[in-house]
């Protein structure tokens, strides 16, 4: 479904990502793990089109999307939830969600159905549909940005550290949401610093260090590799 080959990301003289190969099969949930500065967000933002690759290729099914504009990539079926959890604070939850359907803006009926489906799937958002997004808790805002990305009706969803800065009980809720999405057959690539959290839902994982993939395996293999946490994730 998603195939990344020999990807390189540069910021001027800094090579933040080099030689990265990642593949995600249809319906799979794959984690990209690593410590601060390992290059996880750079990899994700490059796949999403926000940063141009210095080298390498990205394919979504058979379509080459490497170096395409972010809007074109979303239209190809890949949506991204970045790290920053940006909502439109003065707009309601429902209005924020509708903005996520920008690329389908002429399909009013389809958007209405998709909005209803998402509100059914995530009742906490339904309860707050008419509340201003700026008044939501951090965890609820995280749920909102995930649901908003799904309004683009992606076949692949990229998530950048959805647990960042949230209390453990809230992280659990976000991960329940991700697990629910997995049962719908959505293909996901999930960036996390927290290895145990990500491995609780992931099928497979890649571990990044200093811009490179250092290790890859099934969630069970990574869990049983006792040194990985200490070596690459700082504990
Ligand atoms: N816009 C930028 N300009 C210059 N250097 C950057 C930029 N963005 C990231 N970097 C550098 O690239 C490297 C990888 O950063 P990146 O944000 O991809 O790491 P990360 O694995 O997502 O880390 P974190 O877990 O802290 O989010 C770091 O050394 C960082 O300083
Ligand atoms: Mg990051």
Structural features, described:
One of its GO terms (molecular function) is ATP binding. Residues 2-235 form the ABC transporter domain. Belongs to the ABC transporter superfamily. Helix content is 37%, strand content 27%. The chain has 10 helices and 10 strands. With 235 residues, the protein is of the alpha/beta class. The mean pLDDT is 94. α3 (93-99) packs parallel to α6 (138-150). Strands 6-7-8-3-9-10 form a 6-stranded mixed sheet, sandwiched between helices. Strands 2-1-4-5 form a 4-stranded antiparallel sheet, covered by helices on one side. It is globular, with a radius of gyration of 17 Å. The chain starts with a strand and ends with a helix. The chain has a domain at 2-84 and 153-232: Rossmann fold. Bound molecules: adenosine-5'-triphosphate and magnesium ion. Adenosine-5'-triphosphate binds at residues 11, 14, 16, 34, 36-42, 193.
Shape: globular
Number of helices: 10
- Each distinct ligand: adenosine-5'-triphosphate, magnesium ion
Number of DSSP strand runs: 10
CATH topology type of the domain at 2-84 and 153-232: Rossmann fold
What top-tier CATH class of the domain at 2-84 and 153-232 fits best? Alpha Beta
Question: What's the architecture of the domain at 2-84 and 153-232, going by CATH?
Answer: 3-Layer(aba) Sandwich
Poorly predicted sequence stretches spanning 5 or more consecutive residues: none
Side by side, the strands of the main sheet go 6-7-8-3-9-10
């Amino acid at each position: 479904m998603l195939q990344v080959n020999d990807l390189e990301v540069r910021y001027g003289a800094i090579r933040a990502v080099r030689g990265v190969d990642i593949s995600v099969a249809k319906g799979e949930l794959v984690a990209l793990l690593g410590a601060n500065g390992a290059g996880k967000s750079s990899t994700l933002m490059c796949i999403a089109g926000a940063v141009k690759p210095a080298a390498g290729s990205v394919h979504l099914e058979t379509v080459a999307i490497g170096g395409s504009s972010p809007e074109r990539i979303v239209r190809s079926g890949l949506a991204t939830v970045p790290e920053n959890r940006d909502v439109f604070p003065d707009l309601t939850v429902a209005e924020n969600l509708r903005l996520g359907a920008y690329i389908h803006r002429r399909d009013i009926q389809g958007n209405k159905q998709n909005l209803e489906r998402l509100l059914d799937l995530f009742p906490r958002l339904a309860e707050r549909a008419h509340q201003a997004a700026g008044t939501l808790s951090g965890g609820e805002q995280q749920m909102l940005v995930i649901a908003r990305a799904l309004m683009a009706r992606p076949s692949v969803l990229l998530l950048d550290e959805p647990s960042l800065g949230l209390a453990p009980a809230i992280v659990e809720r976000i991960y329940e949401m991700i697990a629910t999405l997995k049962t719908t057959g959505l293909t996901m690539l999930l960036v996390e610093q927290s290895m145990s959290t990500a491995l609780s839902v992931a099928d497979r994982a890649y571990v990044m260090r200093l811009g490179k993939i250092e290790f890859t395996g099934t969630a069970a293999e990574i869990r049983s590799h006792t040194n990985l946490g200490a070596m690459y994730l700082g504990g």
